[in-house]
Amino acid sequence: MIKTLFVTGLFMAGLMPIGHWGDQSEQKLIAANNGSPVIITTNDCVNEKVKAFINPETLPQFHAGTVFFQGEIFNLCYIITTLSDGQDYVLVVDEVGDSGAIPYLLFKEMISI
Q: Among residues 112, 87, 100, which one has the least CA distance to residue 7?
């Protein structure tokens, strides 16, 4: 689904999350990842299908989101971290186990109209 290069093992390793949102609640950011909109929120990761792919030790650091791919909506969970290139990435895993790393700079605040 999300066709960004990513090693699934990162979800098993100890990740260092980055607090971009502080203590604000229910914010949403959106990015177009290869034409597939990805929405991330400040809500906790609670989807049981997604949680099955995440190490329980790192799960409390993950938040919820969705991705729209080929006309379907998939739940996802994510963490924001800095990878070896020094850039911040949103590391995502969805309910079917697909995963990816999306540059954080692609995300913009989602505004309701």
A: 100
